[in-house]
Amino acid sequence: MSRMPIRVRVTAAFAVAMAAVLAGSGWFLYARLDSHLATGLDRELQVRSQDLAALVRQPNGVLATDSAGRFIERGESFAQLLDSSGRVVDATRPLGTTPLLDARELRAAERNAIYADRQSIPGLDEPSRLLAAPVTRASRRFVLVVGATRQDNADTLAAFRDELLIAGPIALLLASLAGYLLAGLSLRQVDSMRRRAAAVSADNPGERLPVPPTGDELERLGETLNDMLGRLEAALEREREFVADAGHELRTPLALLRTELELALRHGETPEELRAAIGASAQEVDRLAQLAEDLLLIARSDDGQLQLRIERIDPSRLLGSVISRFQWRAEATQRSLVYDAGSNGRLSGDRLRLEQALANLVDNALRHGGGSVRVVCTASNGNIELHVTDEGAGFPSDVLAHAFERFNRDDRGRKDSGAGLGLAIVEAIARAHGGEARAANRPQGGADVWLVLPALD
Prior knowledge:
The strands form three sheets. A five-stranded antiparallel β-sheet has the order 2-1-5-4-3, with helices on both faces. The chain has a five-stranded mixed β-sheet with strand order 7-9-10-12-11. A two-stranded antiparallel ribbon has the order 6-8. With 457 residues, it is an alpha+beta fold. Helix 7 (351-368) runs antiparallel to helix 9. It is rod-shaped, with a radius of gyration of 51 Å. The two termini are 57 Å apart. Strand 1 and strand 2 form a beta hairpin. The protein is 53% helix and 17% strand. The protein has three domains: 8-154, 2-Layer Sandwich (Beta-Lactamase), CATH 3.30.450.20; 226-302, Helix Hairpins (Orthogonal Bundle), CATH 1.10.287.130; 310-454, Histidine kinase-like ATPase, C-terminal domain (Heat Shock Protein 90, 2-Layer Sandwich).
């Protein structure tokens, strides 16, 4: 069933539902008609009983006379008059002398009018309906039985049933064809979107599915799919740029490594020259290894798979550990590197990842900034902020707006601008901890880059 086309399945479901509706409606109409015919027959018997009772009350009133013929239809209705002992006093010609009521029914009819059904009547041999009512003639009490065959009602019901059996399948067939056509019209837009979706590929960016202006689920589905295509296209473009930039960054150290090795092979005649070539090659290998590690970290962050070893962290110890790693570089360049863990708050996070993020910020400040470098911890609005500031020229305005984008860097006046992944890694680590990374230029000069992390209660 699941492999059948949707159009066929919808039509089949519609046909089943329509068949149930037609069957239910036919049964209801048939039952109502049967009830109306039965009620009409009972009313007819009441009227006939009243007329014949008036005839019986007359001194010479006889049921078999021509006077009774006005109320009795030969072959369809009949009447019988019984005394209190159940003997037939008078009857229409087909009945003879066989009483139509048994002793129990006779006693009940002497008190009140009763109805009874018979499968066969003497002389008629057809199912019939009886009405027995008390009547008085010349101070004597009798029971008048008036009846009629139910054959007319049965013929009417049979004819109606035959009409239902003919009209019902025809109506079901027409309704199914209409459902099939309507399902096709409804699914035409879906097929149009399917054909367009089959043509969408990475080679033709900007392609979108046709959205029918129907204001229903199809329109919302088309809009949702187009939004999804837009997100996928943007993600694909980012991946393309990422791969292109990564390839560009990898090309430079690989080319330098190859050059150093070729020079060593061709001109490395002394041990000193070979050591220098090997040392330069080792530096490029380190650079390649660091770049590969940075790319792997960002890729895991994008997939939400950056694993963290969460622990309770004292910001003072965290800052002190990072400062101790860079103190020698600051002293070598006669720069001041200090920290202030003024906040008494606590963090919950991965110590090694947070140290890596702060190390990237301090490294950028020492490499690209100027003057003193300060690492400060403050508390604000339930968060812990880890600031790294310097007293240099700050970020160029065009770089600041995209400071945390991958491979974004300012190459002006810099001999070694790096791969442009440091701040992107900082932001990835901050987001993995439920925080964010921010950057700004200080009014008094220099850059201020900081992490905003949730503080422990």
